[in-house]
Amino acid sequence: MRFRQAFPLIMACIVVSPMGTVPEAHAQVAAKPTTVRAQLPPDAQRSWDRATEAMRANLWATAVTEFQRAYDLSQNPRVLYNVGVCEKELQHFSRAASKFEQGLREGEGKLSVDERERFVQAIAIVRRFVGKILVASTETGATLTIDDYEIGKTPFTSPVDIDLGAQRVLRLRKEGFREQTLRLDIAQGVLTRADFRLEPLLMASRVGVEVRGAPNATVYIDGTDMGPSPFRGDVPAGRHTFEARAQGYVTATQTSEVVYREPLSLVLSLSKERKEAKVRIEVQPDGALIEIDGKVRGATSWEGVLPPGGHQLIVKKTGYEASTQELALQVDQERTVRITLLEDRNRSWIWWTIGAVAVVGAGTFVSYIVFKPSDPAPYTGTFGPGVTTAHARW
């Protein structure tokens, strides 16, 4: 699509007498600069001159850059007309319309009737070659470019101007996200939608961590300080350990899986830190009772917490000598105590004596039974004087 229509460049603002003098009737009125160039500061004038030279050579890209610089240095809205003319020659119709409209807006009350009319006519001409798109994005603060020309950042509250034509190239960029490109055909009078869905470079989800039970708690993720509670931010997908820490409180820890595009909310509760010591007691033989400060805590083994200081530990079991000792514990100390009870010798001797007596008595009785002669059989034989003959049968 080619568009050619002559646009006069603004060169003069007022008319002066041929001699360059002010008419008599206006002798008390200070003379105004006769051209736009004359209204510009020296640096802007140099850019103006370079721009006009580029125009004569049909170097419109160079001309638009220099005219824009002249405007930036002077803030003179009349210069924007020339910027718009150069954009039109480059067939950047939406940009040309934007510059013409900006000049008309900023020149309110400053432009002459002819200058204002020139802006209005230029806008009407280029607007015939400009369409509209409705831009939507999943991310705010993303930069939109159309045909490599920066338009602005999302969200856009109204439709965006775009040149008519096929395969207009739209790009949306945001740090930490993959750039997305759309190619759209733009027709006159049709509102076209441009829907962008930016994907993060790191697959992440929104995570919220709230801490209860302690003021001024700090949130940690995988050991990294994320600042004071509550935490709200994007966390990469995967398994993470969340912690809440506060001075004087026991650290609360929770490990959770962060799933891409699935928001996660956690509540970590802190409890006041108990100044205690951890103790484990292991005893032999099995079944021995464990008593601490007069209270039976268990048998064979016991593990728990005790306040710091001195404690009396007694381990006992029938048939064994009791063990008594003092435990001196410090804050946050972890201690393991192993005790083996010895057999009670005195009690063992008594039972041995009683058993021995019983064994001896039983042996005597058995011997008596074994060795006691049986009743003798009656004697048989003849008894003569001085001779005795007997036969015993056992």
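(ticket continues) Second input and output from the same batch:
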Amino acid sequence: MKFETINQTESVLPEDGLQDVLDRCVDFFSAEGVMGADQSQCSIYLVFVEKLKMQELNLQFRNMDKPTDVLSFAPSEPEFLGELVFCIDVLKLQAMENNHSIRNEFIYLLIHGLLHLLGYDHENDDDQAKEMLELQDNLFEIVRE
């Protein structure tokens, strides 16, 4: 899986080794039957925004007037899996709250966002939420630093 990052913040991004993390995610998702071969060849956009921009996006697309950690957007082109938008401010705060490095918090949210792009929904389906969380936690244990 290829990726492109778009940094709309002044923060330095945790990009070192990201291709390896994505490759390991693809391998895991493929082995679990979560991702098809065609999806594993897709590219994704990883966008990083500040708190105010994320709040605007969350209000516009989810009708929630607060910033969130990650939003996922379906692909607009067939060769893309989609777009993940991360709020760097929320990511840093959650890293402190969860006693994670910023990099590990980013990896956790990346996995979460990828599962959304693969069709998982934790808000409207309790069974799928349980499966999603289990996949997310299992993969995080494999790829975390």
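Agent notes: The chain has a mean pLDDT of 92. Residues 120 and 132 are 6 Å apart (CA to CA). Closing as not reproducible unless the customer responds.
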